[in-house]
C-alpha cells in the first residue's frame, strides 16, 4: 500500500467518526454528507508535485516533465533522463532570448487526457 492510500484510509476513518447530527460540521457550505465525501476521497487523484533536482534525480531512465532555466527565463518541457543524467538540450530560444538551459525541477509525466465516452445507446 502506498502513502497516498494510507492517507486516504486515515481520512476516511476520521470522517466516519464525525457525529452525524452535529450541525457545526460543514463541507462546502452544506451539512457534511459523509457518503459523498467518502466517495470523493476514493475517486480523487493525487496531486503531482515538482521535485527540485537539488534534492533528488529520477530513479529510472525515461521522459519527464521538467522546468529549465536559461538567461533568466524559465520553460517547462519534456526532457529525457538517461543513465543518471539529463541529456543535453543545446541552446534554447524563447521570445528572442537564447541560452544554455539547466534542468532545475522535474515530475513524472501525467497520463494523457481522455475525453469522456458518451453512451449513445441509452434512450432518452
Please provide a written account of the structure.
- By secondary structure, the chain is of the alpha+beta class.
- 19% of the residues lie in helices and 31% in strands.
- The protein contains two helices and nine strands.
- The protein has helices at 3-16, 34-43; strands spanning 26-27, 30-31, 51-52, 62-70, 73-82, 85-86, 92-94, 97-99, 102-107.
- The relative contact order is 0.14.
Give a concise summary.
Helix content is about 20%, strand content about 30%. It is of the alpha+beta class and about 120 residues long.
Key terms for this structure?
5-stranded antiparallel β-sheet, two-stranded antiparallel ribbon, 9 strands, about 120 residues, 2 helices, alpha+beta, 2 domains
Query: Total strand count, please?
Result: 9
Stretches where pLDDT is under 50 for at least 5 consecutive residues are none
What number of structural domains do the residues give? 2
- Rg result: 22 Å
**Adjacency order of strands in the biggest sheet:** 3-9-4-5-6
Percentage of residues assigned to helices: 10-25%
Largest sheet: 5 strands, antiparallel
How many individual helices? 2
Category by helix and strand content: alpha+beta
Please provide the ordered H/E string of secondary-structure elements. Answer: HEEHEEEEEEE
State the separation between the terminal residues, measured CA to CA. 42 Å
Strand content: 25-35%
The shape, in one word, is elongated
Amino acid at each position: 500500500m502506498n502513502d497516498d492510500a494510507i492517507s486516504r484510509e486515515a481520512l476516511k476513518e476520521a470522517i466516519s467518526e464525525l457525529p452525524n447530527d452535529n450541525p457545526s460540521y460543514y463541507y462546502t457550505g452544506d451539512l457534511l454528507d459523509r457518503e459523498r465525501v467518502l466517495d470523493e476521497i476514493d475517486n480523487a487523484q493525487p496531486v503531482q508535485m515538482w521535485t527540485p533536482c537539488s534534492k533528488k534525480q529520477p530513479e529510472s531512465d525515461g521522459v519527464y516533465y521538467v522546468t529549465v532555466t536559461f538567461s533568466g527565463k524559465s520553460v517547462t518541457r519534456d526532457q529525457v533522463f538517461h543513465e543518471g543524467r539529463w541529456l543535453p538540450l543545446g541552446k534554447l530560444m524563447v521570445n528572442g532570448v537564447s541560452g544554455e538551459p539547466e534542468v532545475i525541477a522535474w515530475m513524472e509525466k501525467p497520463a494523457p487526457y481522455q475525453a469522456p465516452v458518451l453512451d449513445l445507446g441509452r434512450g432518452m
